[in-house]
Amino acid sequence: MFFVSLADGNKMRKKILCGQLRYAVARFLFASAVAAVMSGCRSATGDVRKKPSIAFIEQANQEAQTPEFKYVNHTIRSGETFARIFSHHRIDPALARLYHQSLKPIGFKALYPGDSLILTIDQNAQCAGISLLSKRQNWFKIKHDSTRLLAEKRPVTLVRQVHIARGTLESSLSESMWAIGLGDALVAKLTDIFAWDINFFMDPRKGDSFEIIFERIYAQGQFIGYGNILAARYVNADKEFFAVGMPGEDGRLSYYDLSGKSVQKQFLKAPLRFNRISSGFSYSRRHPILGVYRPHLGIDYAAPTGTPVYSAADGVVSFAGWKGGYGKHIRIRHGASYQTYYGHLHRIAVAPGAHVTQGQYIATVGKTGLATGPHLDYRMKIGSRFVNPRTVSLPACEGVPEAQLGHYFTLRQRALCILTQRFTDETGSFVLSIVEDDRTAERTRHITLLNPPMHVRQQGPS
Q1: pLDDT for 27-37, tens place per residue?
Q2: Range(s) for CATH 3.10.450.350 in the chain?
Q3: Rounded distance between C-alpha atoms, residue 164 and residue 419, angstroms
Q4: Residues 6+ apart with CB under 8 A from 10
Q5: CA distance 32 to 24
Q6: Looking at residues 444-454, what average pLDDT do you find?
Q7: d(CA 14, CA 17)
Q8: Strand positions, DSSP E, 26-115
Q9: Which CATH class is domain 159-264+402-436?
Q10: What average pLDDT does the segment 280-297 reach?
């Protein structure tokens, strides 16, 4: 048996207490250090999407570098107005109305989610001005004193990055593009280009591949959106589709295939975004309600009630109203030979005689008339004969003008070189070039005299 004397026991207890004390102090110091580091990390790596860019803050601070001013940073959220923001910061709402009225003459439309706003607050807790970086690619600034208010607009210098993206479908196109860092806005641009050849709700298959040359636009170091798709290639079930963009006289891109023919057809492949085809084109189909066999000379696209329906091509509405078993119905004439029919609609948005353009909203899906569920009965007639809209060969729009063929073939060759030689063994999005836009437009200014209330507008460089 092991015995310890009283004196030895006291010494041992003192050692134990000292050790526990040193351990507690060490833990406290370690925890304090970790907290300081984490605090610094949070301030350094916060969500940059919720803060204005550093360049924006620095430029706004140059407006008034004096101790009597402070700056409040605010990122616009959906539904916010100047009045709501000013009220939140306890600023007179009447000033918000004055600011809004002063910005209108220089082109201000509205606040958009993601816009960056800096409020300049004086020693009396009153707003002395604002700086707004709009997603519409403009600076808006207001400064005022007791006698006048100066509103100014000037364009933001934009940086365009040209990228190439490559990917392979594992599920849907949108998920495959999202996986390599591309947003839904670019997905929509790509599907719009090939909408006349590929129905992206039905046709894509696992293993399909896509290649896109496109622009990403930045302002003040922040990504503000996608520019044009310059060229694209999509392989669907071993069939290749190419599109190369060429600017027209108005600067907008039109897209052509490798031979110079327009990828845009005179008719959309489908006049809506649908879930499935519930009934195909047939000369003998058993009617689901009447129980008799008769021709079904159209395609039934199943979709929820309220799904938008679009005109398949330019034309004139020849009928819009109730049509027996078809329920609410629209018929559109396209030139002398073509007609399209849209049946079982829920709501009609056009009137007989109206001129419509391809892709224009004309109605919503419903189940009026003899229908067992919501769907669109879509039909096409050429001359006096109904044809299958999914299989008929449709005419294309005009190709590249003969006088511009040389320029187009240069653009085509450049696109093919990039698609066949750059990052060919990689999946993802890669930068090809960076270009800064030269935006030398003059500033626009608007001066409001606060007392007496009169308006003088000036335009020109300051």
Answers
A1: 554 444 444 43
A2: 54-156+443-459, 159-264+402-436
A3: 8
A4: none
A5: 12
A6: 61
A7: 5
A8: 70-75
A9: alpha beta
A10: 71
